[in-house]
Amino acid sequence: MSYIKLQLGCMVIIMYIVVTYIKAIRKNKGITYNKIFGALLFVVPLAVLFDGATAWSVNSLETVPIWMNRLLHLGFFLSMDTAMIITAIYMYDQILGINSKKMKANVLMIFPFVLSVILIIVGIPYLTFVRGEVTNFSRGFSVYVCFASLGLYYGALLFLVISRHKYLPNSKIAGTLSFIIIPGVLLTIQLIFEEVLISAISPTLLLLGIYVDFENPALRRLTIFNKQMVENVAGIVENRDNDTGGHINRTRSYVMLILNKMRTEKKYRNIITNSYIIQVVNAAPLHDIGKISTSDSILHKPGKLTKEEYEEMKMHSVNGANIIKEIFKGIDDPVFEKIAYEVARYHHEKFNGKGYPDGLAGDQIPLHARIMAVADVFDAVSQPRVYRAAMTRDESFKIIEEGIGTDFDPNIAKIFLDSREEVEELLNELSDQAVTLKREADL
Asked: How distant, in Å, are the alpha carbons of 10, 55, 196, 212 from that of 6?
C-alpha cells in the first residue's frame, strides 16, 4: 500500500475533475463537450492507474509473474505517451486550432507517437527489473523510448506555449506556463532519479491545469453569460431597426465562415488563431450598437436619406465605438474590448480609403473590420429593408464581386465568393430558423 499512496491521491483529484466536468456538461446545455479533453479524462486515469499497478508489481517480484509485470508496464508506457500527445494536441487546438484538411501536418504530429508505440511493444519482452535501495524499478529499451517520446512531445508543447503565448488570453498565460513547466521538471527528476516513482503527478497536473484554465465549468458559464449579454444588447439595437435578430445571426455566421476559410491560408496562419476567431465572432454582434443613438425617423425612413440624415446615420460607427469603450472599460479582456471597438468603428471603412468615419485604406483597416465589412454589406443587400426590396442572391454576390479592391479587401472578398455554396446553405438554414421562431412567437 505504501507504494501507491501518491497514485491514490492523484486519482482522487482526477475523479473530482471527471465528475465535476461531466455533471456540468449534462446540467448546462450551453457548455459544449470538448472531445479532446474528454479523451484526456479517459487516458490520464488509466496512466495513473497503471502507474500505481506497476509501482506495486515491480516491488512484488516474488509473487507477480514476470509476464504480468511487463504487461502492466506496457499499459503504463502507452497510457503515459498517449496522455502527453493528447495534451499537446489539446493545447495546439487552443492556441492555433487544428486544421483537419492539413494531412501532412497532422501526420507529422502523430508519426512520433505511432513509432513510439511500435518500439515500446517490440522492447517489452526485454524489460528488466532492478532492486533499488528504496524501491525497485524497471529498465530497458521500452523505458527509454517512452521517456524519449514524452520528452519530444513535452518539448514541442513547451515551445508552442512559449513561442505562441500571445495567442492566449493574458489571464491564462501564467497559469498555462505553470502547469506545463512543473510536470516537465517532475518528469526530468523521474528520469534522473529512477527510484523516485513520481510519474503519476505529471499527467495529473497537466489535466488539472487544463481543467482550471480552459475547461472550468464556472468560467465557461460566465463566458456564456457574457456572450448572451452582448447578444441581448445588440438585439435591442437591432429590433429598433425592424429586424428580429436575423442580421446578428447571419453576419456572425458569415464572419465565422470567412475566418475558418482564412485560417487555412498560409498568409493568415499566425493571425487567425482559435482565440482570435472566438473574440471576433463574439464581437461581431456589436458592430451596429451605435444605432441605438440614431433617431427612429432615420432608421425607419422608407425613402432615400437626405445629406444631413445620412451624416447622422454615419455617426453610428463612431457612437458605437464610444459605447463599447464605456461598456467594457476596465474589463479583464482588453483584447476583446479592442476588437469590438474596431469592428464597430471601422466596419464601414472601404479598402480604397473612401469609407467612413476615418477614411482608412488597405491594411490600415483592422483585419476584423475588413471581414465584418464583407459580411455586413452582403447581408444588407440580400435582405429586405424598409426603403427597398431584397436583391436576388446573384445580385448580392455581384455587389461583393464589384467591390473587390475598392470597397473590400480582395483576399477576403474572394474567400467569401469562393464559399458561395456554403454561404447559401447558411442563409437557407438561418431563414428556416427565423421562420420557425416567428411561428412559435405567433402561437
From this structure: 6, 10, 11, 21
Report helix, strand or coil for 137. Answer: strand
- Could you tell me the three cell numbers for 86? 493528447
d(CA 275, CA 164): 11
Question: Residues 285, 248: contact at Cβ < 8 Å?
Answer: yes
Q: What predicted TM-score, i.e. pTM, was given to this entire model?
A: 0.72
Nearest C-alpha neighbor of 213 from the set 107, 87, 349: 87
Rounded to an integer, what distance in angstroms lies between the CA atom of residue 443 and that of residue 397?
36
Element (H, E) at 40: helix 35-57
Q: Do residues 176 and 168 make contact, with C-beta atoms less than 8 angstroms apart?
A: yes
Closest by Cα among 15, 52, 86, 58 to 200:
52
Cβ neighbours, 10 Å, residue 235: 18
pLDDT value at 279 more than 60: yes
Amino acid at 73: H
pLDDT tens string 426-436: 888 877 665 45
- Cα(286)–Cα(63) distance, rounded to whole angstroms? 68
As a whole number of angstroms, the distance between CA 53 and CA 67 comes to 14
- Residue 229, judged by CB atoms within 10 A of its CB (0-12, 13-18, 19+), counts as exposed
Say which residue the cell 497532422 belongs to: 106
Q: Comparing C-alpha atoms, which of 57, 49, 56, 58 is closest to residue 76?
A: 49
Half-sphere exposure of residue 48: CA atoms within 13 angstroms, side-chain side? 25
Average pLDDT over residues 34-54: 94
Q: How many CA atoms lie within 13 A of 111 on its CB side?
A: 6
Asked whether the predicted pLDDT for residue 244 surpasses 50, the reply is no
Nearest to 54 by CA among 3, 109, 92: 3
Q: Are residues 301 and 387 in contact, defined by beta-carbon separation less than 8 angstroms?
A: yes
Helical ranges in 193-245 per DSSP H: 201-210, 217-240
